[in-house]
Amino acid sequence: NIGHTQAAAGVAGVIKMVLAMRNGVLPKTLHVEEPTRQVDWSGGAVELLTEPVEWTARPDGSPLRAGVSSFGISGTNAHVLLEQGPSTPSEPEPVRAPGQADTVVPWLLSAKSAAALGEQAVRLAAYVGEHPELSPAVGGFSLATTRTALEHRAVVVGSSREDLLAGLAGATSRGPAAAGRLGLLFTGQGAQRVGMGRELYAAYPVFAEAFDAVCARVDGGLGRSLKDLVFEGEGEGVGLLDRTRFTQAALFAVEVALFRLLESWGVRPDALLGHSVGEVVAAHVAGVLGLDDACALVVARGRLMDALPAGGAMVAVEASEDEVRAALVDGVSVAAVNGPRAVVVSGAEAAVEQVAAALAERGARVKKLTVSHAFHSVLMDPMLEEFRQVAKTLT
Fold this sequence. Notes:
- This protein is α+β, with helices and mostly antiparallel strands.
- The protein has helices at 9-23, 114-130, 136-146, 161-169, 198-203, 205-222, 226-231, 244-264, 277-285, 291-307, 321-327, 349-361, 384-392; strands at 25-26, 53-54, 65-72, 75-83, 100-111, 152-160, 183-186, 271-274, 313-317, 332-339, 342-347, 366-368.
- The strands form five sheets. It has a four-stranded antiparallel β-sheet with strand order 10-11-9-12, with helices on one face. The chain has a two-stranded antiparallel sheet with strand order 1-2.
- Strand 3 (65-72) and strand 4 form a beta hairpin.
- The protein starts with 8 loop residues before the first helix and ends with a helix.
């Protein structure tokens, strides 16, 4: 029972039971203070759920089944039997408690004063404690879309009720919000994944048009359909998305399409930044390079880097840039400075390992990255002259 939803009651009931199967949890029945006396509850065959109940596969392996019988005010609109289908992949999906999200979600708070914001956090924490069925995602969506954005603000992030409650306990305002400038940062390699942008492509024509425009210009240079590789990644294309020549083109296409989608909604950044191939995205959407030239540059960059001999190493280090530079040896470069204590070094494998070991001895955390080449190091030098010749042809 999810309330009087009139003509939507049937489909809402079906959606509810499908989600219950997917999450392995039967939610409690809503709006019932005490069971009706017209049903015999004594035999145990029928039960009213006053709390969420774990709902997992039967011991004999038979699928979960549910019946939806809905009588809306507009008439009888659903009598349906649902049966759980086979999982894809074959392993069953993990069972999550109602208070657990798939990923980290933000809860936004705002008020007219710092004191009022603190009081709002206390009230919200009390509400969450009284409603264990409230999911982090639903709470975050409601706070973001149904409340006025006032001058004093705070944000709490977490993937579970416990995380969010802990955040609410310490939520404070840092002063009235000031009008700021917007900067966008475009990522480099490492962010790619099969299926990225696929749902946006299906949902938003602006995204699809921008993505297709890039694909039309790079497919010839890549020798295959970039769209199929990014969205499907199947068959002989398995693993190709992680090859430099395809990775760079794929990230360029998705990031340009993302920008055009934001642009269509009125987003106007004050500053554009990029790391690695993301610099080319920034240059293009800023108007420095036209789409034809930007695509030519990306295809050449990926092709030339991919053609270099594999080898070298890249290591992420939790240390300051000054600390890292003091430890460098010949053959090792600072490839990226991602934060005050987040630096990546790159170069010949033995030399990089020597630098990483020296920094680790001083207490720095180090992590070797999974890469085919030592990007942003002297090992890239052999491709620079040919890359320079390509760049000279661009406007």
